[in-house]
Amino acid sequence: MLASTYLPRVCAFLHNSRMWPNLLSLMVRAWANVLSSLGTTTLSIALFCLAVPVVTFVVTLLVIWKNNGQAGFVESARKTIIPTIIGLAVPITMIFCVFCWRIVTTVYDDHRQFVENNRELRQRLSECKKSGLNLLIGNMATGRDVRSKTGFVMIFASISNLGPPSIVDQWKLEVTYSSGQRKTYQPVILVSGIVPILDTKGASVTYNPNDLLYRKTASSPIATGAKVSGYLLFDLRPITQEEADIPGTIYHLSAVDVYGNPISAQVIWTANFQQDAVPYMPGAEEPKVKRR
After folding, report:
1. Using an 8 Å Cβ cutoff, are 255 and 168 in contact?
2. Domain segments of the chain as ranges
3. What span, in angstroms and rounded, lies between the C-alpha atoms of 165 and 99?
4. CATH architecture assignment, domain 133-291
5. Which site among 158, 182, 188, 208 is 20 to 30 Å from 231 CA-CA?
6. Half-sphere exposure (CA, 13 Å, Cβ side) for 50?
7. Rounded CA gap, 173 and 206, in Å?
8. What predicted TM-score, i.e. pTM, was given to this entire model?
9. Strand order in the sheet with 168-176
10. Which CA distances in Å does 115 have to 22, 111, 112, 126?
11. Regarding predicted confidence, which is higher, 48 or 27?
């Protein structure tokens, strides 16, 4: 039954030419382990276990030939050939047994090393997946859409990275209004050629669309030790600007890195955000200001 179970596997293994280099490598390493276990070398084994009995047999026959002639030579050869064969077979058998044992232990050692390497790789991968990103909201500004008369908010933020390089996407803003109402918004996606303009007290401010955070963080990974600054625009309809400006309104900005780890930052709206004539985040391109 064992033969019917394992013989086809052995034949398939031997028939697979791609396995021969692996088998040869295994046998070479197993033989090196045999030499290490015996505290000897291949030359020593060949010399004392194989060459010495053969040379002894040949020299003995030559001496008998010289002293007793052909008749004595043939008779002595018959008597000494079996002990010589036994003298060769015994050490070869023992070495073969040690060799087979070392093959098994080499396979086992390789398996243990593979398991250990796999564990280390999983640990490194787990460490790589840990997010080193830090999201910071530096400033905010609200405005009113000219056509819909509803409010919008611009959030100026930065992301610093102390972990592995990563992209950031899936931006969203969760707003909890003073009434207790909670809404979630996606950033406004501006097509090419559209330039965001914010009307503040006493100035019209034009921002570079290339500083939109979702453009900066979704296409190029943020390098380790780097920081990316920019802004995001959210349409709050049907909420008005006056409702968005009420102190105590909570703005929770979040995103996801390449490994699925969430990052977020939160601010509570105060009147101080609207005191800046030109809302801006250091690290982004300075906006163009047109004073009125």
Report:
1. yes
2. 2-128, 133-291
3. 49
4. Sandwich (2.60)
5. 182
6. 9
7. 23
8. 0.58
9. 182-185, 168-176, 250-257, 262-268
10. 19, 6, 5, 16
11. 27
